[in-house]
């Protein structure tokens, strides 16, 4: 039963082949048995899950239907979940039980989804390896000595290991797409403003966006359908109708113009990944797509701009964790300053502290113009490159990452080496564009992802292209040995 996709689960539940309660019990047992190897969960919510599963079964018995009614999922542990620890992977919030549900959590619960637990993540979503979590590193089910990617590494490892069919995640600079690539999943970062950020603990507010991680594009369509939509509680949520994502999955790709940026195939890209990307291009050509070389000339500036903007916003967002209102408080503070210093010094891990310092520096008087403002100008140039490209093509295709998943610890002492791995994903966040990563093959037994980018609000187009690709390839069906 653990091999079923969300789409298959919906059919099985509708046909009364099994109940949501039965399925939930099977998956909870599987998590108990296998997750100790992976460390993909921070909290399990067995009681909540069984209660939601029974309620979903009762709703189905009353004639209700719906693709998510009774479907087991998990939430990245930065979505506030009422009455449940919401730690953001940090000691700072180890004792924090959210007093309310994030909009995403509430919407999925209302659709009948069953929450099995909260997944592990890099502390405050800062990272690409899921090694900065206070709760320990997450392992990649494809090779337990390698990282699963980050910051949504827990969601990715759990879904890849078939502990559950799908999970929520967030992407500030690649944290949905990069772990999807590293674990052979399909992951979608929606347009900025498509999915509400209310109740999603902020890292960098102008970049953060929630989205689905699943095995197939078809399942991403189902989960995104439950997550997307306008929310008056989020001032950056966009009031744009949500299309039926499943309805466009089978649109023809005849004449689809795919742009391949020449800058993507530079020296930093593993040639074996380059070859797999070329294979995926050929596959899409067979389906009727037309390939065109394009240029994104400002791409080289994106990493430095991102690593100014994201830490600047993080330093501002994380100032609320001061040991006074909620979260961790140090023992026996001598005075107020000591309370602030020690609560923050003891509550935040090294990477978070590094970014708070970089961000505070970039925003400080005298440096604001030189760093933050400059970075914002680069951000506009990156966006303009995309706008020019989308005048000529419908989607942009390339690798999700320059290398496959690295070994645990390989980049821990060199943060910049890890930052450089974000080269292909970060630009979509700077521009606010939707992006998807899907399985495209293997290098040394480790999965490789191909990334698709589209104009604003064209999530449906991305899912359509990925679905057609998946109907004609079987990379996404491969299961890691031992799971
Ligand atoms: N790796 C990037 C960072 O560390 C992106 C993280 C994310 O998308 N949350 O900031």
From TrEMBL:
Its EC number is 6.3.5.7. SUPFAM superfamilies: Amidase signature (AS) enzymes. PROSITE patterns: AMIDASES. It catalyses: L-glutamyl-tRNA(Gln) + L-glutamine + ATP + H2O = L-glutaminyl-tRNA(Gln) + L-glutamate + ADP + phosphate + H(+). InterPro entries: Amidase, Amidase_CS, Amidase_dom, AS_sf, GatA. Keywords: ATP-binding, Ligase, Nucleotide-binding, Protein biosynthesis. The active site is at 76 (charge relay system), 151 (charge relay system), 175 (acyl-ester intermediate). Pfam families: Amidase. Residues 22-463 form the Amidase domain. Allows the formation of correctly charged Gln-tRNA(Gln) through the transamidation of misacylated Glu-tRNA(Gln) in organisms which lack glutaminyl-tRNA synthetase. The reaction takes place in the presence of glutamine and ATP through an activated gamma-phospho-Glu-tRNA(Gln). Belongs to the amidase family. GatA subfamily. Heterotrimer of A, B and C subunits. This is Glutamyl-tRNA(Gln) amidotransferase subunit A. It comes from Pseudomonas migulae.
């Amino acid at each position: 039963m653990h091999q079923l996709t969300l789409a298959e689960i919906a059919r099985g539940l509708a046909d009364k082949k099994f109940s949501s309660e039965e399925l939930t019990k099977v998956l909870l047992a599987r998590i108990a048995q296998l997750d100790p190897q992976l460390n993909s969960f921070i909290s399990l919510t067995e009681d909540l899950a069984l209660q939601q599963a029974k309620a979903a079964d009762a709703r189905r018995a009353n004639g209700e239907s719906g693709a998510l009614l009774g479907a087991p999922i998990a939430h990245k542990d930065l979505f506030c979940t009422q009455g449940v620890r919401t730690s953001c992977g940090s000691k700072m919030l180890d004792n924090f039980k959210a007093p309310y549900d994030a909009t995403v959590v509430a919407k999925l619960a209302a659709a009948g989804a069953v929450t099995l637990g909260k997944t592990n993540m890099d502390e405050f979503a800062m990272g690409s390896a899921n090694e900065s979590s206070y709760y320990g590193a997450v392992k990649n089910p494809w090779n337990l000595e390698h990282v699963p990617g980050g910051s949504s590494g827990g969601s990715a490892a759990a879904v890849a290991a078939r502990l559950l069919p799908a999970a929520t995640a967030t992407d500030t600079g690649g944290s949905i797409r990069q772990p999807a690539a590293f674990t052979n999943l399909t992951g979608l970062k929606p347009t900025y403003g498509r999915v509400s950020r209310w109740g999603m603990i902020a890292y960098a507010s102008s970049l953060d966006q929630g989205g689905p991680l699943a095995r197939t594009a078809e399942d991403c369509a189902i989960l995104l359908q439950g997550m997307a939509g306008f929310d008056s509680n989020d001032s950056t949520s966009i009031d744009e109708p949500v299309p039926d994502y499943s309805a466009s999955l089978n649109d023809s790709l005849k004449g689809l113009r795919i742009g391949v940026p020449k800058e993507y195939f530079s020296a930093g890209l593993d040639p074996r990944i380059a070859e797999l990307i070329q294979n995926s291009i050929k596959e899409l050509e067979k389906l009727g797509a037309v390939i065109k070389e394009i240029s994104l000339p400002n791409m080289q500036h994106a990493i430095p701009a991102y690593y100014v903007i994201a830490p600047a916003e993080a330093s501002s967002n994380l100032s609320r964790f001061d040991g006074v209102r909620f979260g961790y408080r140090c023992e026996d503070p001598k005075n107020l300053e000591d309370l602030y210093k020690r609560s923050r010094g003891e509550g935040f891990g090294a990477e978070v502290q590094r970014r708070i310092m970089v961000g505070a520096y970039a925003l400080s008087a005298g440096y604001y113009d030189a760093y933050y403002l400059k970075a914002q100008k680069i951000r506009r140039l990156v966006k303009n490159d995309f706008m020019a490209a989308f005048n000529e093509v419908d989607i942009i295709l390339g690798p999700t990452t320059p290398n496959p998943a690295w070994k645990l610890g390989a980049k821990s002492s060199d943060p910049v080496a890890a930052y450089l791995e974000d080269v292909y994903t970060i630009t979509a966040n700077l521009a606010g564009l939707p992006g998807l990563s899907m399985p495209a093959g293997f290098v040394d037994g480790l999965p490789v992802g191909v990334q698709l980018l589209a104009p604003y609000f064209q999530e449906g187009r991305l899912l359509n292209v990925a679905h057609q690709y998946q109907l004609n390839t079987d990379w996404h069906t491969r299961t890691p040995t031992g799971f």
